[in-house]
Amino acid sequence: MRKTRIKKIFLFVFIALTLCLNTMQAKAVQINLPNDIIENIDSRFMSIYVSYGDGYANKEEYDLAEGFYRKAIDLEPGNIKAKYRLGLVLEMQKKYPEAGEIYTAIIKDKSDEMQAYYSLGLVLDQQGKSIEGIEKLNKALEFEPDNAFINYDIGVVYAKLRDFPQSKLYSARAAELKPDFSEALNNLCYAQGNIGEYADAIKNCEKSLELKPNSAATIDSLGFAYYGMGKVDTAIEKYLEALQYDNTIGEIYFHLGESYDLNKIYPEALYSYIKYLELEQDAYNKDKIDKRISELNKIVSKEELEKARESIEDKIKPAFKSKGTYSFGNTINEDDLPVKEGDDSEPTNQIQDESGTPADQNQENIQEEPNNQNDEEIEEIEIEIPEGSDDQ
Question: DSSP letter string over 169-218?
Fold first, then answer.
């Protein structure tokens, strides 16, 4: 109760300071204070709003963070740092069109802002506008041709478009620029597996797994290469292993279903296809899989399907799932954050990344969660962005 009262008292103080700001601005104009003094008042409060936005973002209260960032931008419309942070919390809320508007506004004000083109490209891809997204990503690449992250993300988007020769080209370039970029090696492996370069695919997957042994996506890509080589039993082993680390990636179930289907293990194939479409409702091959599910339903009983479910779920019991974290910029004491009425819950310090691969979630940008969290302060961890950008 004491902690909650302190927070409520601070909320009143914060409101009073905001009212004071408005009064100071009005009086400053009335008595014709120099513009640089007025701007200094605004900039100090702008930084406070950004700090509180950062604090709420790290508590995963993105709607409140959004409000503070917008207030900061109202005070200083040209502040790019606040705009980038606003764009990011909008993305975290899956408000991709609004995030796109923010990045577009940055480009309008500053046409050489590489990071804005990069972020806009990823946001467009999230909206299903992958061709437009590639155009913006390529524009970002014009500023930094040797940026491994941009090359990688272009490769990822091409893979989503099933254009594997182009995906291979950009993924290979990313891996060349950054040899320890495990995700780039994985994407290269997957592209090569889709164009029949199985031996090279396996080599690159193994390199990727040396860097990140528990990557479900990479183990899946490795299984896919074995499947292409005709080693179906080995592929099945790899797919099941991948699902131990992440059972939320629909494409792994699709690959598993194909392998069981080829081996005429129809109950397991049916269950895998059903799980695939549950996780990937807008799958590129939905019609084809729906048709195959209908065919298998005619030859697989409910009892057989249930046994297949139990068998697969038993084999993919979670072994380990990595937990990526990052946080927004400024350090701030969580006890100083205004709280919503009735909120007595203990805050969490970090934003957790829920994605699997960097096109919508750059694993390379995610740092490991610190072992020693400070209960009083939000620990500052920088968000890694493509090199060459001055602001986040």
Answer: HHHHHHHHH-TT-HHHHHHHHHHHHHTT-HHHHHHHHHHHHHH-TT-HHH
Question: How buried is 368 (Cβ within 10 angstroms: 0-12 exposed, 13-18 middle, 19+ buried)?
Answer: exposed
> What does the alpha-carbon distance between residue 178 and residue 103 come to, in Å, rounded to a whole number?
27
Residue 340 tokens read as 């919503």
In the chain the first and final C-alpha atoms are separated, in Å, by 37
For 372, counting Cβ atoms within 10 Å of its Cβ (0-12 exposed, 13-18 middle, 19+ buried), the class is exposed
Written as one letter, the residue type at 389 is S
d(CA 269, CA 261): 5
Residue type at 42? D
Q: Which of 117, 173, 167, 113 is nearest to 149 (CA)?
A: 173
Taking a C-beta distance cutoff of 8 angstroms, is the pair 170, 179 a contact?
Answer: no
* Residue-wise pLDDT tens digits, 196-233: 999 999 999 999 999 999 999 999 999 999 999 999 99
Residue 334 has pLDDT above 90, yes or no: no
Q: Are 354 and 377 in contact (CB under 8 A)?
A: no
Q: Find residue 368's DSSP bridge partners.
A: 324
Please state, in angstroms and as integers, the Cα–Cα distance from residue 176 to each residue in 143, 170, 172, 290, 357, following that order.
19, 10, 6, 40, 19
Structure pTM? 0.70
Q: Which of helix, strand or coil describes residue 352?
A: strand
